[in-house]
Amino acid sequence: MQGNRGPQQNRGPNRPGEQLKSEGTNSNGQQPEPNEQTNPNEALTLDLQSFRKPGEKTFTQRSRLFVGNLPTGVTEEDLEKLFTKYGKASEIFINKERGFGFIRLETRIIAEIARAELDDTPFRGRPIRVRFATHGAALTVKNLPEFASNELLEEAFAVFGQIERAVVIVDDRGRPTGKGIVEFTSKPAARKALDKCSDGAYLLTAFPRPVTVEPMEQFDEEEGLPEKLVNKNQQYHKEREQPPRFAQPGSFEYEYAMRWKALMEMEKQQYEMVDRNMKEAQEKLEAEMEAARHEHQVMLMRQDLLRRQEELRRMEELHNQEVQKRKQAELRQEEERRRREEEMRLRNEEIMKRQQEGFRGNFSENREQDMRMHMGGHGMPMNRNSLGGSSGPAGTPGLAAENSPMLPGPGNNSMPGGGQGGFPRGLPGPGDYGPPNKQRRF
């Protein structure tokens, strides 16, 4: 027996609703034996780790699903239970009046699996519709430079807010098309980027080519429009009166088909001409911009050279002023030193002159006064010639009188009669003279 796993060569993957129907019977419509029954929870498990890419961002807008045609009375808990197989959801919203809701799963791949398995499956008697929700914070970037990359695009628009995805669109050969997609995590960030870049002045690289930013047009390129979803009104029946066919030559349909073809060819030629003119204008603008950039760089270098020359001239002036000030200071110091030396020399000469004059005057006055005092004390008349002050040669009479013994008197033991002695032999020294009014003791 095969249990509940019948042949499925011409069918898609089992859906939850179909499996719930086949739980009670096997492929032959008979009740399965107890040992052949399987646990539904084990069949509804996914290894979520195998559907995660390294470094992939989780719970983004790209993994947000729209669930439509919900039965009346469905709650958020019921919708969460319906998507339990696909992991824990981060956002669940239900509009009970209009019968639709939103749910955000962990990754894009898990959301694709959930959409493929749950779309058009019965849920409480009604087939539900599962689609990817439109990304309200996605922007289209045009006029990208040739060497723009996904990382450069993300770095350029990260200044406006947190980014979920940034992609540079390439053709089938891997060549960039000049367009890209930037998806933000929030609508305010997308509106801010749209407002800031609307003036066409935002640059991504050193090459000054501004990018243009527009709201991204949402297209369903995977599911499209099935026949069951087409609105079958009167126009629908009128267009479907005849099946698809080829128009026969010479018929009315063939004539107007050729006219439509000619119109489309003319439109194609006009677009090609516009593209060619735009490319020529872009090349011309790039050449002019390159020449202007070179001229601008030359002008900046010239201005920088003039500025440096002005700074050098100013520095030379300051240096010359400093040298002049230093020389003037040295001259002033030299003049001051010479003046002080001159003053010192004059002062020393004056002091020496005064000392010489004072020594001569004091010596003669002190000697004369002492002689007067001594001579007056013995009752002898004072004679200048007796002191050796005569104008005779070598003062011989004075010296003889000076060397002669004094009158005898008391107090002099060396002379006969015990009298007071006279002056000692030789001239007296400077220390032998005291003040004028004081008698010197011998």
From TrEMBL:
It holds the Pfam family NOPS. Its main location: nucleus. It is found in: Nucleus speckle. One of its GO terms (cellular component) is nuclear speck. Residues 416-432 have a biased composition (Gly residues). Keywords: Coiled coil, Repeat, RNA-binding. The keyword RNA-binding applies. CDD domains: NOPS_p54nrb. Residues 1-41, 372-442 are annotated as: Disordered. It comes from the Eukaryota. InterPro entries: NOPS, Nucleotide-bd_a/b_plait_sf, RBD_domain_sf, RRM_dom. One of its GO terms (molecular function) is RNA binding. Residues 1-12, 22-41 have a biased composition (Polar residues). Residues 264-352 form a coiled coil. Residues 405-415 have a biased composition (Low complexity). Residues 63-135, 137-218 form the RRM domain. PANTHER family: RNA RECOGNITION MOTIF-CONTAINING. This is RRM domain-containing protein. It comes from Astatotilapia calliptera (Eastern happy).
